[in-house]
Amino acid sequence: MRPDAVDGRRVVLGVGNLDRGDDAAGRFVARRLREAQLDDVEIIEKGGEATQLLAALEAASAAFIVDACASGVEAGALRRFDVAAQPLPSKAFALSSHGLGLAETIELARALGRLPPVCVVYAIEGESFETGAPLSPKVAAAITGVVEKLRAEIVTVAKQGEERDA
Amino acid sequence: MAVKTIKVDYLARVEGEGGLKVVIRDGGVASAELKIFEPPRFFEAFLRGRAFSEAPDIVARICGICPVAYQMSAVQAIEDALAVDVGAPLRALRRLLYCGEWIESHTLHVYMLHAPDFLGYEGAVEMARDHGDAVRRGLALKKAGNAIISLLGGREIHPINVRVGGFYRTPRRRELQPLAEELKAARDAALETVQWAARFDFPDRERDYEFVALRHETDYPFYEGRIVSTSGLNIAPAEYDAHFEETQVEHSTALHAHMKNGGAYLVGPLARYNLNFDRLSRLAKDAAREAGLGPVCANPYRSIIVRAVEVLYACDEALRLIDAYEEPERPFVDVTARAGVGYGATEAPRGLLYHRYEITTDGMIKDARIVPPTSQNQPSIEEDLRRFIGGWLELPEADLRHRCEQTVRNHDPCISCATHFLRLEVEHAS
Q1: How far is B79 from chain A (nearest CA, A)?
Q2: In this complex, which of A52, A97, A108 lies closest to B125 when CB atoms are compared?
Q3: What is the interface pTM, i.e. ipTM, of the complex?
């Protein structure tokens, strides 16, 4: 991780639609992190529209994006992508009704020089994206583990900043 | 007989899910179908049996891009049924909210969906790598639209502050001042957008459209007016059903609208511009002229410039409305339930949006009818394909396919709104 990456805004961006089953997973993770009241971390929830996601990433030095995906692995599985290093595999994140999905939004941010130096995507595999459905039991059960992993990474990034400043 | 079919299974850079099928026979376009397969959404049925007061929040859910348009047509129709007049200050505030939606929706289409067609890119991401400054300008401009909606609508998407009779809360004058500062910068960006779009290369294609749009005594229309057309139609919104009809076609989950005595017609930026050029602000008129547009523009490929002119107008108008804003005494006027039928027509970014509601004595919605702009434009979009692509049949297949898609995107179809609507198929066979 680049040491210059820990200044400025740190954001957790929970992405998804609350009324579309497992698509809400990122939003639920964001809410749990908000309850944890982490220092100097902005918790943002968004529906997934590209220009709003770009606005949320603006001037951030570190962004942790949590979103649901559908790649065919087991429901509830968590994967971590360092998107500052390489693009997100777009196929699994194509669930957007507005043309630009999360992978394209991240590439748009990169093209515009607006991608935070630290930018990590936590992807939770979903299995049900039905209108009006709740989280599936497997995804609901995975939320706590995702919150803990994400919280640990945010703390690590903050410590690196303190050590560098010391 | 040589038959060629061009198919686009899944059209990109449009709102919602649809495709396109063009059949070319003996060197001519035999048929063109805009295939809309997004499932029907049954909003009119959802509204039946609900209280009139719930309608603004329900219809806001029809579209994430133009929720304000749905709210405005709904409240206007219901207020018509209940004989309510909200008065000039609340009308002005609704018009300001509508400015925000035009800025947001048009800017998204101009920069993210349509400009890549003219500059030769697959999409906005590829375009942003070479035209970063332009895309940054587009994003800043769109943000100004979002700011209006957030302030007046209560949040950026699916606003919650609109009610029958007015608003739940109206802003203090001082709250509008930071918005005015952002809009001044947005107005400069909008003018640059008109100049930028005017430099694109446009196919030389025109058509004798029957344009249909609202026309108001003094204002460039979004919030209210009579429904007028190129051939001289001039009716109140209440007369819409007598002059227009919707029919089902097999290849689309969206209905197709026609004029009862005239066939296909076009709504949207070109229609508004051609029927209301004289109502634009001086700044917007001057920018249009400098961009090479006369008072009439019948080339749909130039609709990107017209959209940019409308964004400029919306910024200008929003600033005028903010400057003239007087805080209303109350955020809404009282509304009493009574039986009646009401009609509403406003100008969504994509064109005329008609609503009709029948309300019962106890204030429940007995019947609702919603005719979105994309339903009205589908027959004209298919006609554009039939008329325009004939000169491009010798192009390599990928280029021809792109011309077909661009021709559809000229009209910024919103499939999600119309379903109750895109894949492209071009067949070449012998």
Answers
A1: 31
A2: A108
A3: 0.82
